[in-house]
Amino acid sequence: MAGNREAGDMNGPAPLTKTIRFQTWTLGAAALLSAAAAILHTFVQATPTLDALMASTAAPETRQSLRMMWHGMSAIAWTHPVLLALLWRRPAGVARPALAFLAVLNGTQALFLVAAGLWAEGAAGLLSLPQWAPHAAVAALAWAARPSAPTEPGRPGHRGRARLVLLWATTIVTGCAAVYHLIVGTFHSWPADLLDGDTASPAKPALYAMWLFSCVVFASVPAVLVWSTRAPAAAGRFLVRYTAVLVACLMASWTLTLILGYGPDMLPAGPVTLGLMAALTAMSVPERA
């Protein structure tokens, strides 16, 4: 990471150089493991999980919507190695919070998978839902790869009056969406129907853990927007844009599901709402310092 690359003295590598080397290798390992997690989610577990879902007695809208969300989460999983690659040459002021954010995403995903597996099958659930392991490893490696905090952090990004209004309006909209997704969605929508249905294990706990992680994704948008008001401009711009990409992944999955005819019972307003959230978030980035 460019912000921390300094040469050692003439007597040999300085401790800082060794630290940078460790961070570089750790970042590379996290990128490889995140790609492995994306491959596992997209190509290895998708077919058995979605076959079990579509063969269940859950309502058609539930089956179609959770299938759509699985593909959206596959797209989000592929953003992780891309993000790590982008951070390779980013300054420390950007890389440090971005890696912490990625660690939180992967750590919560691993936690939900472990909890769902233990709830459904006891200790055997740790083997039937093995994707928790690469997510946990990526979380640990991303956290360890964080560079030291810069001695002179950048100034918070400036926002004019119009952009401040947009920022707080977007925060309110995305915050309400996150609360609705967590409370109404979890207890009165697709995951509730999933639990009442006969979807076979390990598909049921995997899908439920996926839903819980989607709550984290939705909650991260207003959280990052508020954080960006105090963060250095470059870091705020980077992470606000990344959260917009996360929402856009779900929007794209929902849109393609409707276009390809795989969601006849799904609400067509979903992509519009997600697209609006993604656009508003992307437009709420702070100005360059």
Automatic annotation (TrEMBL):
Keywords: Membrane, Transmembrane, Transmembrane helix. It comes from the Bacteria. The keyword Membrane applies. The chain crosses the membrane at residues 25-48, 68-87, 99-120, 126-145, 165-188, 208-227, 239-260. This is Uncharacterized protein.
